Amino acid sequence: MGLRVLAAMSGGVDSAVAAARIAEAGHDVTGVHLALSANPQSHRTGARGCCTIEDSRDARRAADVIGIPFYIWDMAERFQRDVIEDFVAEYAAGRTPNPCLRCNEKIKFAAVLDRALALGFDAVATGHHARLVDGVLSRSVDPAKDQSYVLGVLTREQLSHAIFPLGDSTKAEVREEAARRGLTVADKPDSHDICFIADGDTRRFLADRLGSAEGPIVDETGAVVGSHQGAHGFTVGQRKGLRIDRPAPDGRPRYVLSIEPVSNTITVGPRAALEVTTITCGSPVWNGPRAYDDLTVQLRAHGEVYGCRFEERDGGLTVELDRPATGVAAGQAAVLYSGPTVIGSATIVSAA
After folding, report:
1. How high is the pLDDT of residue 43?
2. Of the listed 50, 51, 100, 195, which one is catalytic?
């Protein structure tokens, strides 16, 4: 007997093919598009976003082709509170959040899953490129599109009600299948950037909400080498967009080393000063087996992986890397893997 499955349909090719596969497998599927913006006309269109009127129409057309019921759920208020306001607050505190990760955690697999289960659905299916192997989250077979990192915050309970139909396919195979099925989104470009920042200008988006406040840019000795209009406009590892009045003596570029929101100070220095090997994280979420072989950690979406070891300490996690990493920012997630399998994740607090 098939499951009752709620298929989250963003309007892109991945979620459309995911819904089609679940329906073809004999499950009772209902499509739902999440309206995440109170003013969708103001959001980007075409390739750059996933929150537009265009996207909701594409999702509805895909549901019609598949032959499944389709609804739009208004999640704008929850998205504003749990994703956008969290994003702004994190930057104000000198951290660098990942809004896609927060959306998966708070919207798709909290608000949506809770509502789906209350309505009698057995599971939520999405178009994420990831696999569930015996109920445990694992990397996609397509390393270029793997999204297990942004799903690493999910609990075992949430994963037990999740379906990721695309994890065994490459993106090229998904597009070819969409074309065969007659889905008009087969050639639709992938969305990218931050969906709720219409023009992609994160610094201006934050300045509009947090205001401007001139502060110093200092080097490692504390000498003032420039100025800025708000510490919230920077992230650790950033090179571009720095207003440096005094070039480095060696002529090499400078990078953001740290952000101090209280004193509104940005510290810059050479790339070598960004290197860290010890990462301190907050409370971990464990969603895989606690047997560790070939242990690695990923520190950014689509970022490098590092061999590591870790120790649980005082309710948090200390991760020791086997080689230095650069640009490690507080607020990002450290996702631990054993081979392709996700063990768990924790939010980065500091690095040294």
Report:
1. 46
2. 195
The residue type of 114 is D
Task: Identify whether the C-beta of residue 210 lies closer than 8 Å to the C-beta of residue 92.
Answer: yes
Check residue 149 and give its pLDDT: 97
Residue in 50, 51, 100, 103 annotated catalytic? 103
What pLDDT, in 10s, does the model give residues 113-157? Answer: 999 999 999 999 999 999 999 999 999 999 999 999 999 999 999
User: Distance between CA atoms of 127 and 20, rounded to whole angstroms?
Assistant: 11
Alpha helix (H) ranges present in the chain? 13-24, 53-66, 76-79, 85-92, 99-103, 112-118, 148-151, 156-159, 171-180, 202-210
Query: Token pair of 295, please?
Result: 């242990």
User: Do 228 and 234 contact (CB within 8 A), yes or no?
Assistant: yes
Lookup: tokens for 168: 């065994």
Active site residue 103: yes
pLDDT bucket at 45, cuts 50 / 70 / 90: very low
DSSP category for residue 108: I
281 flagged as catalytic: no
